[in-house]
Design brief:
Length: about 400
């Protein structure tokens, strides 16, 4: 790739142990033709040293504004970048960025950058969930930065929970996705598009629960991660977002109005109510097709009958089909389908049956899709189109969905 057309990436590295994973991200970026300048914070160098960053990037590495002063690096780096990608973004670094501090080269670069900025946070769960960090993340997102949700899993010590840096391969996909979406024909990056600005979108997420008695329910394995990624990315693109969440335990996405529901019927009412004013409705929730015919208002006991009693089921209303039938002119309706086999064939048939504009088809199985931060899918459109989305973070799939929705709304 010619020197001047290589995408310029500033890789900001915070002082977290996950910095070691960022070496792999850097390698992927440079090997795929990106021109990367690494800008660590001073304390980040305690985890991974300057020679490693310099050797892997092939570029000089500085942490403060006092090197190469004649080139005014604190202004030049931000201005010339196509993407600033910060990983790991520590609680301290998010706070400094949110408050506009400029006490090292990286925070100066964040203030001068006019290109997309991505933060990939990594920290202990308590720090991630602290109201101060939540507020800083909300501020950064409101200003248009993409703050990727951390993964859940083993943290530095024996503890587990949300706060892990996502895998380098996923971060690489985020970087690639953002660059692909924002690089103008002229080759240089523009600010990320606020192409849903002034639009109201409704997203459903999670899995409904159909009560059998006060203790038991029929549920499903949906975690809500994909719906939450759709809500977050829509907020980042300027939309007013109503998120109808069924039994989701994830932290609330900043900037979205959240309506909590339990059953399919609750979800139906909540979605219909907000869909009235919506430009787009995306049904990412796993809605139960059936519910128990009779709700027992006291716990069913083993001693109630000689053997297990059958539970009779009745059909729930298909919310998606009902939305399509009742939608106001111009509203875009998107469905999701989880299939275990013959994915495309079943998807096409379902798209036709439900009558929506688009269907996002996932292949599901034991370790596929449910509860994982990444996803692969095919988006089928009613006009016969088909967009393959390779395995990557659920945010990347969400952005493809919003690209297609925004194009239809234009
Ligand atoms: N959906 C809905 N209301 C229901 C059931 C499903 O709105 N009562 C929506 C889901 O949110 C999803 C889409 O319909 O967007 C596909 O759901 P799915 O259960 O896969 O479709 P079904 O028509 O139930 O097909 P099948 O169970 O036969 O695969």
């Amino acid at each position: 790739m010619a020197e001047e057309t290589r995408p310029r990436v500033i890789l900001g590295v915070g002082a977290g142990i996950a910095a070691y994973k960022v070496c792999e991200l850097l390698r992927r970026l440079t090997e795929s033709g990106h021109d990367v300048r690494v800008v660590p914070t001073r304390d980040a160098l305690r985890f991974v040293g300057e020679p490693t960053w310099a050797a892997l990037s092939g570029r000089p590495v500085a942490t403060d504004v006092w090197s190469e002063v004649e080139q005014v690096p604190h202004v030049r780096l931000g201005r010339e970048a196509d993407l600033v990608f910060v990983a790991p973004a520590t609680a301290d670094l998010l706070a400094r960025a949110a408050h506009g501090l400029a006490d090292d080269l990286l925070t100066n670069t964040l203030l001068t950058a006019r290109c997309p900025v991505v933060f990939a946070p990594a920290m202990h769960t308590e720090m991630w969930e602290h109201p101060a960090t939540r507020a800083n993340v909300a501020t950064l997102r409101a200003r248009g930065a993409l703050v990727v949700e951390p993964a859940s899993g083993r943290l530095t010590g024996a503890d587990t929970g949300p706060g892990r840096l996502p895998e380098p391969s996923e971060l690489f996909e985020v970087a690639r996705g953002v660059l692909a979406r924002t690089r103008s024909a002229a080759g240089r990056a523009a600010a990320p598009p606020a192409d849903l600005s002034g639009r109201h979108v409704v997203v459903s997420a999670g899995g409904t629960r159909e009560a059998i008695d006060p203790v038991r329910f029929i549920g499903n394995r949906s975690s809500g991660l994909q719906g939450y990624a759709l809500a977050r990315t829509a907020v980042a693109r300027g939309a007013r977002v109503t998120l109808v969440a069924a039994n989701v335990t994830l932290p609330d996405p900043a900037g979205a109005e959240i309506v909590r529901v339990v059953s399919a019927e609750d979800m139906r009412q909540a979605v219909r109510k907000s869909a009235d004013t919506a430009d787009a409705v995306v049904m990412a929730a796993a809605v139960a097709d059936f519910r128990p015919a009779d709700y027992r208002d006291r716990k069913i006991k083993k001693s109630d009958s000689a053997g297990p009693e059958p539970i009779h089921l009745v059909k729930n209303t298909d919310i998606l089909a009902e939305l399509v039938a009742e939608r106001p002119a111009g509203q875009v309706v998107v469905g999701f389908a989880a299939e275990t086999d013959n994915v495309i064939e079943h998807g096409r048939e379902k798209l036709a049956r439900k009558g929506c504009d688009m269907l996002v088809v996932n292949q599901v199985g034991e370790n596929l899709t449910f509860g994982t931060p990444d996803n692969a899918a095919v988006v089928l459109t009613a006009d016969g189109g088909r967009v393959e989305v390779p395995r990557g973070p659920k945010e990347a799939l969400a952005d493809v969905v919003w690209d297609l929705v925004a194009a239809r709304l234009r």
